[in-house]
Amino acid sequence: MRFHKSVLLQPACHFLAVKSGGHYVDCTLGGGGHAAEILRQGGKVLGLDQDPDAISACLALPKPLGEGGPDLILVQSNFIHLAEVVSAHHWQPVLGVLLDLGVSEHQINTPGRGFSFQESGLLDMRMDPNLPNTAATLVNQLSVNQLTSLLRDFGEIPVAKLLAVKIIAARPLTTTDQLAAITGKWSRQAFQALRIAVNDELGALKEILSQAQQILAPGGRLVVISFHSLEDRIVKHTLKNMPSLTPKPVIGEKGAKLRAYVKTINHY
């Protein structure tokens, strides 16, 4: 499926240790690559994504009615509602949870979504179109100190204040190419910072890591694929007391890092 190419596909399913008929949760469906492989290996998948385009792309995945109910259930939801969705669909015991963080190829390659600094489009960057604030909202309303903190903390940009001053001087900004012309060589980091802020990605990550540990059955696996150091640090810190299956992360394309953990009965 060309909606999104799943990275570290086989390693992710290897560490999930898919069992026939077992219940798994793909918290970030994207184009359904990971979900399709879990299904192929005999698992059942509860798939979440806050982006309605991802849900639409996954409607073509096979949904046979296996023993005990359907093999695939699709839910449009932010993964911060993981425990609630699992409970509502009676999806326990959960043998594995998968998180493939970051932005999808479809989101990047659709100019109207506003994620790419290389394509002209509105400054949006919302993964869920119902979120209240777009990237344009932040760019045009934040103070210089607020914008500096955003660019520094989420983009790790050493010249964050200089960029913030330039952005504010050029307001109002409504398109990606307008912003990219100002951020220049720091565009990748600046767009990342705004995307993280718009979607509260780091706050959501902390929340789901806690929920995932709670809903997993003893012996269940948690696999997380991250794409930048901010995500990776949160994963390592939050899960430091959970037994790791990957003493060193598995490295994939685009700098992706896969870390896998197993839930024991008394690991807290």
Summarize the structure.
This protein folds into 2 domains: 9-105 and 202-262, Vaccinia Virus protein VP39 (Rossmann fold, 3-Layer(aba) Sandwich); 118-199, Putative methyltransferase TM0872, insert domain (DNA polymerase, domain 1), CATH 1.10.150. It is built from 12 helices and 9 strands. The chain has helices at residues 9-16, 33-40, 52-57, 82-88, 105-109, 135-141, 144-155, 160-169, 176-183, 187-199, 201-215, 229-238, and strands spanning 23-26, 44-49, 65-66, 69-70, 72-76, 94-100, 216-226, 250-251, 257-262.
Detailed description of the structure:
It comes from Candidatus Amesbacteria bacterium GW2011_GWC2_45_19. Specifically methylates the N4 position of cytidine in position 1402 (C1402) of 16S rRNA. The protein is of the alpha/beta class. It has two domains: 9-105 and 202-262, Rossmann fold (3-Layer(aba) Sandwich), CATH 3.40.50.150; 118-199, DNA polymerase, domain 1. Helices cover 41% and strands 17% of the residues. The protein has a seven-stranded mixed sheet with strand order 5-2-1-6-7-9-8, with helices on both faces. Strands 3-4 form a two-stranded antiparallel ribbon. A hairpin with a 5-residue loop joins strand 8 (250-251) and strand 9 (257-262). Helix 7 packs across helix 10 (187-199). It is globular and about 60 Å long. The termini are far apart.
